[in-house]
Amino acid sequence: MWYSPVGGLYLSLLLFPHERFNSIALLASLTVIKTLEDLSFSKLSILWPNDVLLNNRKVCGVLCEQYKKAIICGIGLNANIKKFSPKIDNATSLLLESGQNYKIEELFESILKKFESLYAGHQKGMLKIKEIRNYITGIGEPVEILTQRGNVNGTVFDIDDDWALLLRDESGIIRKFYYGDVKKLRW
């Protein structure tokens, strides 16, 4: 569910990556984390593939769509949102966590600057998966992955060097996922 009230930062980036199309959502999530760390936030994590959590609550969502050789990467950061819909029970904002308002323009500039730097390194093969792995939440935990082909239950095993999620399914087989929505079965 997308919820985009006044007070959030919403942006889309048009990219033409040479490689690693499937890792752009994780790269954008890492960008947001690095930006928030600069603002002295901690307890940040990534719920693969596209949610940034702050204190185990969603503070940012990333959505990427591929069209031919382009990727449109949308980022929605809950910056100055005071209240969420009752239908959304696991969201937070920078304002709710810190008690202060943030200038949307400054957040935008910081995210864009960090993204440009990380993206350049990523396209040159200089950014390694360990940068992401340090922030991934849920390794060893039971999840359900929702895909276009159906749902798969299992335990998060790891993130591989190709930036894909490795899931040990209920039969013990390790399966690789590049896309899908992850639903934690236990919070």
Structure description:
- It is a single chain.
- With 187 residues, the protein is of the alpha+beta class.
- The protein folds into two domains: 125 residues, 2-Layer Sandwich (BirA Bifunctional Protein, domain 2), CATH 3.30.930; 43 residues, SH3 type barrels (Roll).
- 24% of the residues lie in helices and 34% in strands.
- Strands 1-5-4-3-2 form a five-stranded antiparallel β-sheet. Strands 9-8-7-6-10 form a five-stranded antiparallel β-sheet, with no helix packed on it.
- A hairpin with a 5-residue loop joins strand 7 and strand 8.
- It is globular and about 50 Å long.
- It starts with 8 loop residues before the first strand and ends with a strand.
- The model has no long low-confidence stretch (mean pLDDT 90).
Quick tags:
187 residues, alpha+beta, BirA Bifunctional Protein, domain 2, SH3 type barrels, 2 domains, 5-stranded antiparallel sheet
Question: How much of the polypeptide forms β-strand, as a percent range?
Answer: 25-35%
Multimeric status of the protein: single chain
Spatial gap, N to C terminus: 19 Å
Read across the widest sheet, the strand sequence of neighbours is: 1-5-4-3-2
Largest sheet: 5 strands, antiparallel
* Mean pLDDT across residues: 90
Query: Architecture of the largest domain in CATH?
Result: 2-Layer Sandwich
Note poorly predicted spans: none
The structural domain count equals 2
What's the tally of helices?
Answer: 4
Write the element-wise H/E pattern from the N-terminal end onward. EHEEEEHHHEEEEE
Q: What's the CATH topology name of the largest domain?
A: BirA Bifunctional Protein, domain 2
CATH superfamily of the largest domain: Bira Bifunctional Protein, Domain 2
DSSP summary, beta strand count: 10
Helix-and-strand structural type? alpha+beta
The CATH class name of the largest domain reads Alpha Beta
